[in-house]
Every structure is written in C-alpha cells, then in structure tokens.
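Service request form, structural biology core

Requester: graduate student, group of Dr. S.
Request type: structure prediction, single chain
Budget code: on file
Notes: please return the result as structure tokens.

Sequence provided:
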Amino acid sequence: MTKKEIIIGVTGSIAAYKACDIINILRRGGINVTVIMTKEAKEFISPLTLQTLSNNKVYSEMFELPVERNPLHTSLADKAGVILIAPACANIIGKLANGICDDLLTCVVMASDAKLLIAPAMNEKMYKNPAVQENIGKLKKRGAKFIGPVKGPLACGHDAMGHIAGTDSIVAEARRLLRPSPLPSPRRGED
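Core staff response, request fulfilled:
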C-alpha cells in the first residue's frame, strides 16, 4: 500500500518561511501534510501558521501525550511515504548523519522507512565546511536525497551557495518520491 502523506520537518533557519509555500502547494495537490518543528524553528515561524496551512496538528515535543496508543515518534513515522526536511540546517544534517535522536524530528526519521528528502539552507561557509560535507556524504550513502542548496541571497547579506532550493523544485521532487517505484521487469526466461 502506498502511503500518501508527507511529513515536513522544519528546522532553525531563516528559510523556515518557505515551508508555508511548500505546504500550500502540496495540500492543493491533494497530499496530506504533517509538520514537525524543531524548537529552533519556532524562533523563525509560528506553529499556528503551519497548523493553519497544513490543516493538521503541528508536532514539536517528543513527550507529548500521543493521540493514539503508539508512541508519538513511531506513529508519525509509520504514516509517512516521504519525510521532507525543508529547510534543513547544519545541525539537523549532523544529527541525522551521526544517529543522534534527541528531538521528535530526528526520532521520527530514524524510526521511519519513508524516503528522506533534505533541502539544506545555511550560510555558505557552513555549507562548505568539511564536517557538513562529510555528513551530507554519509546521508547520501544511506539513500537520503538532497535538493539544493543553490546560489542566492543569504541572511548574512551575501549572494552565495546556501540558499534553499526553489519551492517548485522541492515540491516536484517530493511528489516524485511519493509515487510508488515501478516494479522491475522480469528477466528474460523468468515469470
């Protein structure tokens, strides 16, 4: 059974406002969206805004009482076809690459077999830092997909690499990943 839900993880980046457009476009396309915010993301955008746009409860706290009998992180992980982290700061990339589960978003990612799409957004020097590049490499080797960043205006005032990828590109890739993979063709002579 194909899961038609996308979990969007929003992290502590000035690009957090881009999650609003991503959620709007996905919802208009008939995709159910659940948002998980890190505590740092709340410094940039309000949970109420994302809840209104997604028409679903926004999750942030690891130890909220679950609505269902299952633990919150596993019940969220089980319903996702794709987990999209947009924007993804250097901190969340580092945690995921190194197996650190100290908040709801990292626990959901680690407990899920959903496809993982990461849209980094950060200062150019942070993005090019060898530790960040090593962490991105680790995640790619494990099957995570990355989109962006691109060259563009950054919060520090520079026009450089680190700007979050375009909303339309992120949405298109998330939709592509949500589609079921085609079944492999049988080899000649096999039934």
